[in-house]
Amino acid sequence: MRLTFTYFIIVLTFFFNVNANAQIDPTLLKRVPKDTVKTLNMDALYNRPALNIGKTPISIGGYLETNWQHLTTDGISEGHQFQARRLSIFMSSAISKRVKFLSEIEFEDGGKEVAIEFASVDVEFHPLVNFRAGIIVNPIGAFNQNHDGPKWEFTDRPISATQMLPGTFSNAGAGLFGKKYSGNWMVGYEAYFSGSFDNSIIENTENKTFLPAAKDNPERFEEINSGEPLFTGKLALRNIKIGEIGISYMGGIYNKFQDDGIILDEKRRVSVFAIDFNTTIPKIKTFITSEFAWINVNVPSTYTQQFGNKQHGGFIDIVQPILNKTILDWEKATLNVACRLEYVDWNVGKFNETGGNMGEDIWSIMPAVSFRPTSQTVIRLNYRFQKQHDILNNPASITDGFSLGLSTYF
């Protein structure tokens, strides 16, 4: 916390100095152009609008998310809520030829949670062979890396990407990545060893197998609970005219199976497989993005059946532009209609005693209308209708309501 607070103060001081120092020409502050044609989801962390300070190697940027929300669950509501969801600040630097640095600090819920989300040094040897080390975002699925609020038409992040998978999961680690272009085709890969999960994925306040609980352990940046690193690998293929498909895997030992050479337990493994796909239908410009994941956790036999060994889920977003024209002084302002379909099952399987299906699942449909005065700012109105069953498959609790949000890069 002290480190991230200091970092934030340094960034704020830098901004104030830029504005206050009369020797700095404001015209030297310019947006760094981004190539969005020849990119993959793996490029999302670098493919962001940022301010470049003149001829210096430093670029600074960030984004903000803020919402109004009114939801009701089984007729009970907490009323109107205003939410300062997150403020992210990122800073990058071209240290030297073939060496660059990028960091991202995220402040969530008005500063209640502060985290270094990404901070790595990249060393380029060849387009196909690049080394990355520091705090990395594990590339499982697509959303984990491509999560910036202004890129999405929905105020809430996908349930499967945040409440089944550990959304924006980052760890201290190192590995290789690379890309290759050939005509309309692009292929990319990432392979990292990093910090891992711990026993909290089955020992948590949710009282179920819950991978996101591992994010609450700050010690994962200093030590690995099991002593064995987590491996995360992804292969992505894109055709400019068709779309991008990605296949990823994340797995490792999560439990502390020995201590000072004394065997405490067998090695227990967590494995995650994910597939993601996105495309744009050319003539009508409909954008479709999807992600599905399957999780296997070796849960001790002493645990009750509410701690599932298998989980799966995913989401599909469909976004349709219906208006693209100059509105007021905004050129190419866009009005979209969209819909998100989501499903998660935290406990796949049947009860040993009865043979009946276990519950603990959720599905949601979220229609939306969004307005983009520019590609970097979105105003979005969402309606959520959601049903959730408990493990015994009792009648589902129903949640519905509206949310109105604003998200923008700066």
Please give a quick description of this structure.
It contains two helices and 21 strands. It has 410 residues and is mainly β. The protein has a single domain, classed as Beta Barrel (Porin).
How would you describe what is shown here?
This protein is mainly beta and 410 residues long. The chain has a single domain (2-409), classed as Porin (Beta Barrel), CATH 2.40.160.10. It contains two helices and 21 strands. The protein has helices at 2-20, 159-164; strands spanning 29-31, 51-53, 58-73, 76-77, 81-96, 99-108, 113-126, 129-137, 170-182, 185-194, 230-239, 243-253, 258-259, 262-263, 269-281, 286-297, 310-327, 330-345, 361-374, 377-389, 397-409. The strands form two sheets. Strands 3-5-6-7-8-9-10-11-12-15-16-17-18-19-20-21 form a 16-stranded antiparallel β-barrel. InterPro entries: Porin_dom_sf. It comes from Flavobacterium swingsii.
